[in-house]
Amino acid sequence: MQKVDVFSALANPVRREILVQLRKGPRKVGDLASHFDVGRPAVSEHLQVLRKASLVREEPRGRERYYHLDPRPLSEVGGWLETFERYWKQRLGDLEQLLDEEDGS
What are the φ/ψ torsions at residue 66 (nearest 5 degrees)? Predict the structure, then answer.
């Protein structure tokens, strides 16, 4: 199976919404498809991309397949975003300090 980059998988809004839905628990493709304007085959294709990015795993139960969220690869995204979070916190802290100094003068 060819791997897919986590950032590439998250670039699509339908795939992001699928992950949100899977936060509520395991779901079948048909259950997930009911939340979108796209058909079941399209949702299946999105699930395959998410599976190749290791963001979801598949569990066969009889004739059905349930999909589970696997959030571990999201730590890569979290680590990347943390740099920007620190940047903005520093900038807002600087702004707060400047405003406090102006109020005090």
Answer: -105, 145
- 27-55: per-residue pLDDT in tens? 999 999 999 998 999 999 999 999 999 99
Q: Give 101's DSSP letter.
A: H
Write out the two tokens for 77.
């995204």
**Overall pTM > 0.85:** no
- Give the integer Cα–Cα distance in Å for 5 and 103: 48
Query: CA-CA distance, 19 to 71, in Å (whole number)?
Result: 9
Q: Which residues contact 53 (CB under 8 A, 6 or more apart)?
A: 3, 4, 5, 6, 8, 9, 73
Can you tell me whether residue 24 is helix, strand or coil? coil
